[in-house]
Amino acid sequence: MQMEKAEPSNAEEMNSKLRKRNFWSGLLFGIGMMAFIDEVIFHQLLQWHHFYDLATPQIGIFADGLLNSFAWFAAIGGLFMFADLRRRQAVQMRYWIASILIGAGGFQLFDGIIDHKVLRTHQVRYHVELWPYDLSWNLFGAALLIAGLVLAKSSKERRSA
Amino acid sequence: MLHHYLSPVEPWFQLTAALLLAWALMFYPMLAIWTNERYKKWPVHRYLFWYAGVIAAGAALVGPLADTAHTSFSAHMTGHLLLGMLAPLLLLHGKPLTLLMRGLPTNAARRLSRLLNSHFIAIVSHPVSTAILNFGGLFILYRTDLFLLMHQSTWIYALVHIHVLVAGYVFTWSILYPDLTAHRHSFRLRAAVLIVVLAAHKVLAKSLYAMPPAGVTTTDGEMGALIMYYGGDAVDMAIIILFCYSWHKATAPGRIARAI
Q1: The pTM is what?
Q2: Contact, B120 vs B201, CB < 8 A?
């Protein structure tokens, strides 16, 4: 049948590809979602983050631009990949949610360590004692990441059980 | 903006622009209705896209916004978003090239498609070329004295506006394929180019926030930069959704080989 040609012939290979797509869909959506939450809550609502802080080095501006535009694409692309999994009836919900947590936690940690501290794009908040903010920022990111990894492991065990 | 820098845009610019816009509004439906006799009926939504696109471009070129843009950087930036990002996206969905192909006599249509298939078009319509054309133009406009010169000579003013529209049009075309497209490239390449251009757009907006072009006041410059940054995000969201949707359609199960 002509339709069969499009898909990998081997059912196992197909399963592994779809499982990977569950991961990538969740990961990308998690990254994009976190970047969006960061923008809405910390830039717009609380206005803790600054659009531009004069201390930012050039490289920080470039890195931030690239990260944000990638995240913008990832949020939308991740959801379209999810739609693709739905129409293939290949959604592994537990694993997908685990991947979202990994993406979101990973983004939060990256933002907290690389953006805020290494590249100094901007700080969590200004005119305050900074370390409690940095610490809770990164702990929250780590918590999301660990929760995601645990959930991913449990989804694998459930599948093999 | 500081007024002593300016000399007013001469009236011939707005008159010519208005005339061209009127032609676009008139000839498009004429051609569509005329070719309906021979082909399938031209869908209504394409007229709407075309008209919306002409109106978006028109708002940036003639009338109150264009007048204010001469003294206000925020208004200028709003106009450029309309002219360089929104208008191209809307106009392309009116599929003007498809319509033109329908209307041309066979021989002329063949010549046109031979031109579209040429090496020259392959090179200039490559996503990397259109990205450089599009972003390079913006960079030169805002980071050199061109911005100042534009407000002193109507000819330069006209050239800059034509460039913004044309560069935005070919860039959007090379990322999405809303109209006839001769040379196609992978989703991966186009996604990468789109992300890099969007990033460069954000970086430029931040650099304008910190350091507006000569003659622009700080508050006006900051407002214009924010409009560029977030307005760009909004139009880009539409482009990304359309892009992903075209991926979604192209990779439907059973549709093509290498679907997954």
Answers
A1: 0.88
A2: no
Alpha-carbon span A104 to A38, nearest angstrom? 11
Residue B199 has a CB neighbour count (10 Å cut-off) of 21
The Cα B166–Cα B78 span in angstroms is: 17
Contact state of A69 with B202 under an 8 Å Cβ cutoff = yes
- Contact between A75 and A35 (Cβ < 8 Å): yes
Q: DSSP for B173-214? A: HHHS--S--SS---HHHHHHHHHHHHHHHHHHHHHHHHSPPT
Largest CA distance in chain B: 65
Contact yes or no for A22/A100 (Cβ under 8 A): no
Contact B229 A73 (CB under 8 A): no
Are B240 and A76 inside 8 Å of each other by CB? yes
Q: How far apart are the first and last CA of chain B?
A: 53
pLDDT at residue A141 greater than cutoff 50: yes
pLDDT for the residue numbered A29:
96
Average pLDDT over residues B27-40: 95
Contact of A90 with B257, CB cutoff 8 Å: no
pLDDT higher than threshold 60 for residue A145: yes
* A142 part of contact set with chain B, CB < 8 Å: no
CA–centroid distance for B39 within its chain: 29
